[in-house]
Design brief:
The chain is α+β, with helices and mostly antiparallel strands. Helix content is 15%, strand content 30%. A hairpin with a 6-residue loop joins strand 1 and strand 2. The longest helix has 9 residues. The protein is flat and about 55 Å long. The strands form 2 sheets. Strands 5-4-3-6 form a 4-stranded mixed beta sheet, covered by helices on one side. The chain has a two-stranded antiparallel sheet with strand order 1-2.
Length: 93
């Protein structure tokens, strides 16, 4: 089977691509002071209408505490770009 002009097969499109290392994020627990790396799947991001309602959360792998931290614009950009699950909060007013 030959490719038509301007069309490309999936094999051709992905030829030369290398395996990409998974993204990890450094985090710390305010309860036990543990420092660790978390995969994107271990974090959740909630984007609200204001900086007070925009945050990320995770469960500390050392002590099990649920940690919630504020997320400014740069943190939101890094987390979304790294594949973290995002929930957009909408106002009911």
């Amino acid at each position: 089977m030959s490719e038509r002009a301007g069309e490309m097969t999936a094999a051709t499109a992905f030829a030369g691509m290398r395996r990409v290392a998974p993204v990890v994020f450094r985090a710390g627990c305010p309860d036990c002071r543990g420092r660790f790396e978390l995969a994107a799947s271990a974090l959740r991001l909630a984007i609200g209408a204001s900086s007070r309602t925009t945050f990320y959360s995770f469960t500390c792998p050392d002590c099990g505490a649920v940690v919630r931290k504020p997320a400014g614009e740069r943190i939101v950009e890094l987390l979304t770009g790294g594949g973290v699950s995002t929930l957009r909060l909408h106002s009911t007013v």
